[in-house]
Amino acid sequence: MFSVYIKSRSILQKLFILFAVLFAHLLPAQVDTTIFSDGPYLMYGDNGQLTAYWADPEARTSGQLGWNDGATERLPPFRTFRPELVNPDTSFQRQKQVIFTGVDKLAVVSDIHGQYEVVRKLLISHGVMDNNRHWTFGQGHFVIVGDIFDRGGQVTEILWMIHQLQQEALLAGGRVHFLLGNHETMIMDADIRYINRRYLTTGSLLQIPYQELYGPDSYLGRWLRSLPLTVQINDMVFVHGGISLNMAREVYELDKINDLYHQHLIDNIYGTVASETERLKLMKGREGPLWYRGYFTDRDLGDKDIDKILKKLGASRMVVGHTSFEAIRSFFDGKVIAVDSSMKFGAMGEVLLVEDGHFVRGNLQGERVDLFEAGR
Ligand code: CA
């Protein structure tokens, strides 16, 4: 039938049809022209009601809507936000459990710094979520060792994605641990030196300073203020910078590290008592859990020091971010694992996978390499 159809046309038409058939696959597929807004930023008013704010920094437009005024149906499209997973009455209680045992599989990333596409690809390629960003990791635990904020321009997308995965994981018997990094606490402290330019535009369009969009009166801000700095899973301690020898001498119980930091440096509801001042200075400074880099920079730090720290913590490994490498790396015979694999540049990044005691680096091509192979 096809040949009859061709015969009734001129040579030129025939050639055109032939080319169209041969090269159709080279034409661009239908491009998704949906414009996604930045947001939503959900803010609590004096009456406890939420208002949703959003902006399009490129088109320089913005909007707002009361949550109870049908916001869930009338919001513009966002890349990752799902309104059905927002409960305005959430209490955002701080998670008290810091030690988790008997976890069969783990996925770990850190220092995403606004690179949504990189982390999305890694999580899909390595079975943490599907193409629609739904949790597929079963009873596994997924740890983000801090620093979703700053540098890149898709922080909001990542936060809502993680917020959703956290809820889905719980339903599946798994867990998502989003641990605070120094860039989360900087935003909470209104230090916005490292935010992407897009967010300066969002702030000015909404006429709300960026730090207030994550302040104590915002939904995501309350969520941030409920997150831990550190957890232990099986025999591994996870913390953004690391636990220094001085820190371990001072405080080594993980729940105490979380409590002290939250009570005095985030909530600050008790004021700071004089006897705590030195300890808090240490916690907030270069040897504190969110800023420490000594495992990689302190030449005087030896195996024995690492053993001392681990003994204090009652763990056999530490998994940290904050200090960037070109890939996930192991130090001190695997007692320190560095997972900041430079996602911040937008073109690279890895996920650490731990399954049945095997440590594997998962890369953006979907390949898996043994972390402890020779030379590492
Ligand atoms: Ca950091």
Q: Explain this structure to me?
A:
The chain has 376 residues and is of the alpha/beta class. It has 14 helices and 15 strands. The chain has helices at 2-7, 11-23, 67-74, 116-125, 155-172, 182-188, 197-206, 210-213, 219-224, 245-250, 254-267, 277-284, 294-297, 303-313, and strands spanning 38-44, 50-56, 61-66, 99-100, 105-109, 141-144, 175-178, 230-233, 236-239, 317-320, 329-331, 336-338, 351-355, 358-362, 368-370. The strands form three sheets. Strands 4-8-9-10-12-11 form a six-stranded mixed β-sheet. The longest helix has 18 residues, at 155-172. Calcium ion binds next to helix 6.
What are the defining features of this structure?
single chain; 376 residues; alpha/beta; six-stranded mixed beta sheet; globular; binds calcium ion
